[in-house]
Amino acid sequence: MFDRYEAGEQAVLVHVNFTQEGEWEDLSEFEMLVSSAGVTSLQVVTGSRQSPHTKYYVGTGKAQEIADTVKALGAEIVIFNHALSPAQERNLEYLCQCRVLDRTGLILDIFAQRARTHEGKMQVELAQLRHLSTRLIRGWTHLERQKGGIGLRGPGETQLETDRRLLRERIKAILRRLAKVAKQREQGRKARQRAEIPTISLVGYTNAGKSSLFNCITEAGVYAADQLFATLDPTLRKIELDDVGTSILADTVGFIRHLPHDLVAAFKATLQETQEADILLHVVDASDDRFRENIHAVNEVLEEIDAHEVPSLLVMNKIDCMDNQKPRIERDDEGTPRVVWVSAMEGLGIDLLFTALTERLVSQIVQYQLCIPPMHQGRIKSIFFQMNAIQDEKYDDEGNLLIDIRMQQVDWLRLEKREGAVLSDFIVTTMAATV
User: Fold this and answer.
1) Direct distance between the N- and C-terminal alpha carbons of the chain, in angstroms, rounded to an integer
2) A GO molecular-function term, please (predicted)?
3) What confidence score (pLDDT) does residue 269 get?
4) Is 239 left (phi over 0), alpha (psi -120 to 50) or beta?
5) Is the CATH number of domain 365-430 1.10.287?
6) Is 251 labelled a binding residue?
7) What is the pLDDT of residues 234-266, one digit of tens each?
8) Which of 25, 175, 282, 384 is most solvent-facing, going by the fewest CB within 10 Å?
């Protein structure tokens, strides 16, 4: 299906510094990505441009320099720290006479290596197929549209068209399977909502220490390593919090700058654990000089997957790699915990993290008494009944339904957003939330 040069483990890396901020990428992070993929870097070719070149992404002179470097070092692959168009990839491959991979393809390759579960493998395959669907070429010229003679007449379509059709069918098949997985996950989430079990989701930049923190809290023993995208498949474990009870902690895939859209789409079912969480633990590598940029990159991805409105608690991790940093809780003007400084590797500050989590989850439980007129009673009561939020109910002399509800604040906000201002109009009394 694909007429490509064989990719190897000896690579020439290409990094271009752009004056436009939107095109900026981090070279050190790129080298970590390459290392995580198991590739040996022979040389890094750098350059500066105001904007990408149409044909080669880099200029013609720099493209020739890359080709000469590949020939001199005997490299088997060229990896760009940028997103290339299919035409740019082909032009560079023709010039360098070797495989050319862009940043998106590199991340997809790492994901393919890390996938362990059946769901994870399907998600990676879906992302790869979507990425490769734009890079199909006429590789089988002996199978053209029509051939003369008995037994040699073609099927009426070129091999390229056949390849595209096969890709579309495979993508549809994977999407059907992932839809079943998404349905199963949704049933699990609804069951936890009915049982009023809060969900805490770990999010953060890749290699921030999420899996180490997850292991420290749950003793789950999930794979953790000092490399990018060590975690791919989500893991859920029960934890016990004082005054809150049983909660679910979810370890998720790490984010990165310019996370490929194909990956975001493919991992929709997995990322939904983040969307539906009651609170996010945003884990940050505090020892990283660029931690502020990493926080911003994670927030951008959260906004992209519609999880930016979920309440979050910032966890500054790896204080053992810093000087004069001790475990502590930082609070806002109202005394609400906003930042917790910990070390997952050394187990420092975990008790403070539990304290902050308990305070945040307790404060996020709301209790209201609603007065619902007869015309809305059936639908509104059904919604709260499904969420197991009704504490008490009775009718007044005018036939209005008076119900006492108790639920997570994030669930109330979602309902309010879906139903509009109607729900707020029904509130008669706001009661103190107790656990």
Assistant:
1) 60
2) ribosome binding
3) 57
4) beta
5) no
6) yes
7) 677 888 877 677 788 887 777 777 666 666 666
8) 175
